[in-house]
TrEMBL record:
NCBIfam families, A to Z: integrase_gron (TIGR02249)
Keyword DNA-binding: yes
UniProt keyword DNA-binding, yes or no: yes
Domain Core-binding (CB) as annotated: residue spans: 14-97
Protein name: Integrase
Keywords associated with the record: DNA integration, DNA recombination, DNA-binding
Ranges where the Tyr recombinase domain occurs: 115-328
Lineage: Bacteria, Pseudomonadati, Pseudomonadota, Gammaproteobacteria, Lysobacterales
Family listed: Belongs to the 'phage' integrase family.
Originating organism: Pseudoxanthomonas japonensis
Pfam families: Phage_int_SAM_4, Phage_integrase
Length: 332
């Protein structure tokens, strides 16, 4: 335990601040992503503020469940959001405070509803992509053409695009797993142009004394020069260099993922598509269209990076004629 509060009591604003600082240190030691770090800190802060001037070790299952119930009833948050809040609170106790209380194993997680994914037809996908321009069009085509998640797309590095083998290596996808997916032939000229643009931008950064990108885990210490190499640069870099909150160094980060979300919304309206469209809709459409084309579900599972084939099987429920291509008796 790396946090020892004065007199063993954690109360007041000062105690909360020190506790949050300790949480940041623990998450960075464990290599949590910046997104997870921010989300966990938000939930831990809200939980502590809901019980002012009380040592969190004096709280129990009743207070945790009351907090989570309040999120569901008053805040009307989704089950996944409720479970994220629970994960943050459990992290506070187990990893920051260094205590494991008996009630931890008895806290019930919210049950996530089973919902069918929204899938666009191939005609709708074409109409959507036709209303996108520039880098947003390339990124959207990448997600639909490969089945990559949004963050996997914006975090793609130059070195992980293999034009000789027509494949893309997805690094540290969901669950920290690497996988390979195809590189669509029609996307090759666009990605070549993007990487050429990155090369010019990188040379300008180096000339200006910058040129670093963030490297995962201990690679920055093991390979000090790698952060300035072209291969590690993002294929979709941010427009400007920014200060990295993790270590205070100036780096060029990747494109803000919210930019694509906004572009997709505009394209959806322009194309007259009634269905809700997000970046994940493109991934759902990728999987469904492959299965419709007759590809084996195990192949689709590997391309998507699903741990269990049961996760991939949900796409058999959204095919045009149902699972197993069953023909309705009305159409006989």
């Amino acid at each position: 335990m790396d946090y020892q509060p004065k007199d063993g009591v954690i109360t007041g604003e000062d105690g909360t601040s020190r506790l949050l600082d300790a949480a940041v240190r623990r998450m960075r030691v464990a290599h949590y992503s910046l997104r997870t770090e921010r989300a966990y800190l938000g939930w831990i802060r809200r939980f502590l503020l809901a019980h002012p001037r009380r040592d969190p070790r004096a709280l129990g299952a009743v207070q945790v469940e009351t907090f989570l119930t309040g999120l569901a009833v008053e805040g009307r948050v989704a089950a996944s959001t409720q479970n994220q809040a629970l994960a943050a609170i459990l992290f506070l106790y187990r990893d920051v405070l260094g205590v494991k209380l008996a009630w931890m194993d008895d806290v019930v997680r919210a049950k996530r509803p089973q919902r069918l994914p929204t899938v666009l037809s191939q005609q709708e996908v074409r109409a959507l992509l036709a209303h996108l321009e520039g880098r947003m069009a390339v990124l959207a085509k990448l997600l639909y053409g490969t089945g990559m998640r949004l963050m996997e797309g914006v975090r793609l590095r130059v070195k992980d695009v293999d034009f000789a083998r027509n494949e893309i290596t997805v690094r540290e996808g969901k669950g920290g797993k690497d996988r390979r997916t195809m590189l669509p032939g029609s996307l090759v000229p666009m990605l070549v142009a993007e990487i050429e643009r990155v090369q010019v931008l990188h040379q300008q950064d180096l000339a200006g004394g910058a040129g670093e990108v963030w490297l995962p885990h201990a690679l920055a210490r093991k390979y000090p020069a790698a952060a300035r190499e072209l291969g590690w640069q993002y294929v979709f870099p941010a427009r400007t260099i920014s200060l990295d909150p993790r270590d205070g160094r100036w780096r060029r980060h990747h494109l803000d993922e919210a930019m694509l979300s906004r572009a997709l919304k505009r394209a959806q309206l322009a194309a007259g598509i009634a269905k809700p469209v997000t970046a994940h809709t493109l991934r759902h459409s990728f999987a469904t269209h492959l299965i419709e084309s007759g590809y084996d579900i195990r192949t689709v599972q590997e391309l998507l990076g699903h741990k269990d084939v049961a996760t991939t099987q949900i796409y058999t429920h959204v095919l045009n004629r149902g699972a197993g291509a069953v023909l309705s008796p009305l159409d006989r």
